[in-house]
């Protein structure tokens, strides 16, 4: 043994290293649900959930069951409704306020990327059908009014929905949809993510890739990475000068819907000319990617629109800034609904 | 105790790496009396990166070895919240005329921090280079693999507001791995070299790509 050690220290080192490595005790795995990201409704039965259009969705509703429904539609794709919870205040005004995490997002059920991309441009119809199913789930009386309240991607989705189904919503409230035609969406995303090359924000988004990598449908890993990357944006204000809150990103659906949009140049303004009910359109004073001229450009897609600028906040702050929500956004929403 | 075991494991890995093996050098121009190689580089690899390195050449007619240490940081407002250190070396295994084949293996310790988490990782970077080396210049092709073997996660209060039950600690098996491919070329003058490396990075599943899927390095070597 002594002679072996003298002759081959390299081999001994390998054996010691291997022994130590394989005896390192209990480990945590990055793809185990509940380790780095919260469990979804299919992994944690205690979460509030509904079954809609073939998916288990994390969902809650507040306010009188037969009152006018306000459906809060979150951003992303791949965000969740936690940051929209100030809208719950509207239940105190007598409305039925409904929240849901879209499929593959937040705490809702996850699906493989292929389940979206294989539908090609019909992947967007899946999201519309899901919204119809959520409305149908909560509808208690046949003539119950429905008002869509969409933020960011949620506002794009709501716009596309009423363009396709103008009779299904009796009101439309939108907060800073990036764009409706694909080129507009591309331009907005580029503008809102134009971090300086040398900045800490860009570095935080890119340096992580050497520590954690996930395969195509490893949701726990990809969602965690997406949450880390989406945490802060000093251009739009998300997580920066605006308060922000979320549960869990949906990386796969975000990637899939961007991929579908890019491949088929989805036009979310299609049919909007047929939606003549007034639309309430908010944009923020501090989102540097959503200046006045951009708001003017986007609002031209709507047949009948009232445009309101919320000063002192950024993209999320229209709703997440509690002070401005109470002072500006909420009163505008209540006046709008009363005017319908 | 468990943590110290991890450190021990990976320290040994680093030492093994040192035996068998990263700077980009012109093997043909290395003179017998040049033992020390100081290097500095700037480039793009998971961010805008600034790096420095030191290598020591061991005399061997058959298999020249350069043991080295490297340290790099990405650009950003916070100086040392993220960094990467490597220890290892290059071995030139084959020389057929002007064509030469070398490999490198380096143990890695790197850190990442943002407002949500601080990660500490031990990893291993291995690659092979086939190149054509003249006294004054060289070109080569490199293929390598960077494995994040074991990673410690320590989350901030901000992330605990998002997910209060997040589990801190050592995560394994391996938390990540990326392949990289690059072409490299350099020019040698006196006891100095400048070189350029260009390439791409792809995840180990060969499908997903990092946010910045490119590799770029402009470097300078000074030999003593």
UniProtKB/TrEMBL annotation, chain A:
GO terms for biological process: proteolysis. The keyword Kinase does not apply. Gene3D superfamilies: alpha/beta hydrolase. GO terms for molecular function: peptidase activity. Residues 68-315 form the Serine aminopeptidase S33 domain. InterPro entries: AB_hydrolase_fold, AB_hydrolase_sf, Hydrolase_4, Peptidase_S33. SUPFAM superfamilies: alpha/beta-Hydrolases. Keywords: Hydrolase. The keyword Hydrolase applies. This is Alpha/beta hydrolase.
């Amino acid at each position: 043994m002594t002679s072996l050690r003298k002759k081959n220290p390299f081999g001994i080192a390998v054996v010691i290293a291997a022994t130590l490595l394989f005896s390192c005790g209990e480990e945590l795995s990055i793809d185990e649900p509940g380790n780095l990201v919260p469990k979804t409704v299919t992994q944690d039965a205690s979460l509030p959930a509904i079954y809609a259009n073939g998916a288990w969705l994390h969902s809650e509703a507040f306010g009188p069951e037969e009152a006018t429904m306000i459906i809060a539609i979150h951003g992303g794709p791949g965000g969740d409704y936690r940051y929209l919870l100030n809208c719950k205040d509207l239940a105190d005004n007598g409305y039925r306020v409904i929240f849901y995490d879209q499929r593959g997002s937040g705490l809702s059920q996850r699906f493989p990327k292929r389940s979206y991309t294989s539908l090609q441009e019909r992947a967007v119809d899946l999201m519309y059908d899901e919204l119809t199913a959520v409305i149908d789930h909560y509808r208690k009386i046949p003539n119950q009014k429905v008002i869509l309240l969409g933020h960011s991607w949620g506002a794009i989705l709501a716009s596309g929905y009423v363009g396709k189904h103008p009779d299904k919503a009796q009101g439309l409230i939108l907060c800073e949809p990036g764009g409706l035609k694909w080129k507009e969406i591309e331009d907005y995303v580029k503008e809102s993510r134009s971090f300086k090359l040398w900045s800490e924000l860009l570095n935080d988004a890119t340096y992580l890739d050497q520590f954690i990598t996930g395969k195509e449908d490893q949701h726990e890993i990809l969602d965690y990475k997406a949450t880390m990357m989406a945490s802060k944006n000093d251009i739009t204000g998300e997580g920066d000068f605006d308060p922000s809150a979320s549960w869990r990103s949906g990386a796969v659906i975000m990637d899939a819907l961007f991929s579908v949009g890019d491949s088929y140049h989805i036009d979310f303004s299609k049919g909007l000319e047929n939606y003549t009910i007034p639309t309430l359109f908010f944009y923020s004073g501090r989102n540097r990617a959503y200046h006045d001229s951009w708001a003017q450009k986007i609002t031209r897609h709507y047949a009948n629109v009232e445009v309101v600028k919320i000063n002192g906040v950024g993209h999320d702050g229209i709703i997440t800034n509690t002070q401005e929500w109470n002072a500006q956004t909420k009163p505008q929403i209540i006046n709008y609904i009363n005017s319908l | 105790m468990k943590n110290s075991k991890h450190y021990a494991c990976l320290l040994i890995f680093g030492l093994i790496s040192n035996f068998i093996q990263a700077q980009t050098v012109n093997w043909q121009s290395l003179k017998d009396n040049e033992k020390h190689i100081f290097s500095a580089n700037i480039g793009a690899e998971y961010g805008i990166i600034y790096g420095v390195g030191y290598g020591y050449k061991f005399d061997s007619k058959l298999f020249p070895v350069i043991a080295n240490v490297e340290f790099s940081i990405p650009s950003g407002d916070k100086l040392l919240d993220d960094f990467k250190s490597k220890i290892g070396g290059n071995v030139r295994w084959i020389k057929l005329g002007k064509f030469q084949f070398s490999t490198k293996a380096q143990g890695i310790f790197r850190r990442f921090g943002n407002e949500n988490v601080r990660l500490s990782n031990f990893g291993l970077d291995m690659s092979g280079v086939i190149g054509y080396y003249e006294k004054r210049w060289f070109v080569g092709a490199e293929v390598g693999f960077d494995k994040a073997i074991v990673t410690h996660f320590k989350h901030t209060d901000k992330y605990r507001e998002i997910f209060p039950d997040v589990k801190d600690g050592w995560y394994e098996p391996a938390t990540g791995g990326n392949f990289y491919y690059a072409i490299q070329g350099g020019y040698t003058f006196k006891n100095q070299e400048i070189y350029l490396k260009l390439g791409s990075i792809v995840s180990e599943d060969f499908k997903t790509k990092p946010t910045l899927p490119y590799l770029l390095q402009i470097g300078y070597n000074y030999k003593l």
